[in-house]
Amino acid sequence: MKRWFPYPLIGLGLALLWLLLTESVSTAAFLLATALALAGCGTLLRLRFPKARLRRLGSVPGLLRDVVVEVFRSNNAVARIILRPSREDARRSGFVRVPLDMRSPHGLAALACILTATPGTVWVDYDSTDGTMLLHVLDLIDEDAWVRIVKDRWERRLMEIFE
Amino acid sequence: MSQAADLPLWAALPVAMLLVVGAGLALAGSIGLVTLKSFYDRMHAPTLGTTLGIGSILIASMLYFSVLQTRFVLHEILIGAFMVVTTPVTLMLLARAALYRDEREGNPDAPPRRPPPTKD
Amino acid sequence: MSATLISAAVLVAQILLVAAMGCAALRVLRGPRAQDRVLALDTLYVNGAMLLLVFGVRTGTTHYFEAALLISLLGFVATAALSKFLMRGEVIE
Question: Which structural domain range is residue C13 located in?
Fold first, then answer.
């Protein structure tokens, strides 16, 4: 099992994707889904894709819930900024450099997805030599506050899961 | 439009609301694309449409077809999952390309090349 | 009752989405720089996929779903390729 499916989560995801796409649970669909999962895992093995070690899966639902809440909140905030241009002069946008302690590539990818998917912040660049991340913030009030938000709200919890 | 008459009102109300809210968010994002001043500000506007905008339209579509065909129609999740994975990738690639171009031309929009020494 | 409600909502959503596509098209035409045009093109793709999903609700067929999926796939590939082109001057190194 370990030999054929070195990436169990990705294989399962590919199989589910196929079943959803064809919208059937017949034997043929299951066989094709398994073939797709095998092919995907084989390709990743050839590419020497780093394996993720997930620890403490119990904190994943809480994290997902917080991401959804944050997406709702920041959608509202950004829509207000766009539709009320009278306050345009008071608003300041800019770049923030955040020093990160996380080194796991999967954790960094998850952090990038979370930060970019919430409107108002975009992950721009990552410097792997000193581990700093460049973030662009639409409504920048205080640089240090943003560094604290990124580190306390997301990075610490992602490190619990991925490292 | 004829099948929509079979839809019970408890399903029609959220479907209608989600459709209008999703389209409204997409419009808000595109208005931001036109009105915001600099490129880096405009980069934030389309995320309104790609997160909650398309999300609510997908949920509306799932609810509509699931109730209408009395079975779970879930393949809209694929577009949602795809959007979640690809939007950060495209935005990041585009932001880095813009940063590179601005740095090479010495535009004032680009951030300082190295972190200021006070941060360390 | 629910038929009129759905058709009204679909009409409003279509008008809003076409207006959104118009805004994005305006930014594609105005620029001023290449990255603005690429960003607006990406928005145009996403808005187009949403419009197709609304068409699906309007006609009551799930066939539009495949078209929306394809548009979002192509939009991602196109934007990624264009961004790489802006960065390096070529798509495949």
Answer: 2-88
